[in-house]
Amino acid sequence: MSDWKCSKCGYMLKADQPPNECPSCKEKCEFVDNTCYTPDCPAGGIDKRI
Ligand SMILES: [Zn+2]
Description:
Layout (H helix, E strand, L loop, with lengths): L1 E5 L5 E4 L15 E3 L17
Antiparallel strand pairs: 1-2, 1-3
The structure holds zinc ion (ZN).
The site of zinc ion has 8 residues, from loops.
């Protein structure tokens, strides 16, 4: 599971793969993986820089 964030509206969801269509803005958006992988983040943390 990864955290995904819509690059248009900022909608976030957890999924293995990002959806084709954003459930929030109903458009084909680019989803960015903002899962925080660095060890100083808490488990399941989200990278706030994205
Ligand atoms: Zn969106």
